[in-house]
Design brief:
The protein has 272 residues and is α/β, with parallel strands linked by helices. The chain is built from nine helices and nine strands. Strand 2, helix 5 and strand 3 form a beta-alpha-beta unit. Helix 2 crosses helix 3. The longest helix has 24 residues. It is globular and about 50 Å long.
Length: 272
């Protein structure tokens, strides 16, 4: 299924004014389980940052996490990178409107070629690496761009059902999102790739256990599948979430507070 057209349609609705855009971010933070995990890790990292930090948002999308980082510390400087010109222009315009253009700058860049040696205290890559074939080159670029002691934080699907992949025959696998070049990472494989890129310590943990996977289906898979079939579902979408939203919040909380022996997501931390 093509996910980008749905995201583009949602973006148009909430880009009407800055307050709607911020409301959209807040809704995503509550609805998306990955946002719960990422915000938790970023808050934990931020506790040890006494002054402002230089941060790269590698694959910034709507700018949701860039915005959150600017709220953690007014001295943080975020360079947000993406390959989509329209999205870059839109985010720069939004951050200028809300008076945060000095804190956050968006640029069109290719992560397979972009480096800025020893420049960043933190790099985040949220649901991006599953879209990039040359992942080891990107990991190497991240390592070069981090300062000594810097942290790379990655959220990505795992190979244990990540991308909600369905198997068709022995070798054929189809994920829910067509834009993915891989349906998920093996935990040992991604750790080995990051170590080969030069990272001194790599930690990985599963996210999206049973409760989280159910929350994802209710909050994302089912409504997006219906929207992909008919845009008329936009009219009914508020009523759908009125029913499912409270349950999704409970499921997200349970996933956050449970240690998972397996899961369809991975949260990876790599230190330089």
């Amino acid at each position: 299924m093509q996910y980008d057209p749905i995201k583009k349609s949602l973006g148009k609705v909430f880009n009407a004014n800055p307050l709607l855009r911020i409301l959209f971010y807040k809704m995503l933070d509550l609805l998306l389980l990955r946002a719960w995990h990422i915000r938790k890790e970023l808050k934990r990292w931020n506790r040890f940052v006494t002054q402002g930090a230089r941060i790269m948002d590698a694959g910034s999308g709507f700018g949701q996490y860039t915005y959150f980082l600017t709220t953690l510390n007014k001295n943080h400087e975020v360079l947000a990178l993406d390959v989509k010109e329209e999205q870059i222009a839109d985010c720069n315009q939004f951050f200028q409107k809300i008076g945060k253009s000095q804190q956050a700058r968006f640029e069109k860049q290719d992560l397979t070629t972009y480096t800025q040696a020893d420049s960043f205290d933190l790099i985040i890559s949220i649901d991006v690496m599953e879209h990039i074939l040359e992942d080891e080159q990107v990991f190497s670029n991240f390592h070069q761009s981090l300062k000594d002691g810097g942290l790379l934080l990655i959220s990505t699907p795992s190979d244990l059902g990540g991308s909600d992949s369905d198997h068709h025959g022995e070798d054929e696998v189809h994920g829910f999102i067509d834009e993915h070049v891989r349906d998920g990472y093996n935990m040992d494989d991604i750790k080995a790739k990051l170590e080969r890129a030069g990272f001194s310590r790599v930690e990985a943990a599963y996210t999206y256990g049973k409760t989280g996977s159910l929350a994802w289906r209710l909050s994302m898979k089912y409504p997006i599948s219906i929207l992909n079939w008919s845009k008329l579902f936009f009219i009914l979408l508020p009523f759908y979430y009125l029913i499912t939203f409270p349950l999704c919040l409970v499921l997200n909380y349970l996933d956050m507070t449970t240690h998972h022996k397996a899961g369809t997501g991975l949260m990876v931390k790599a230190y330089k």
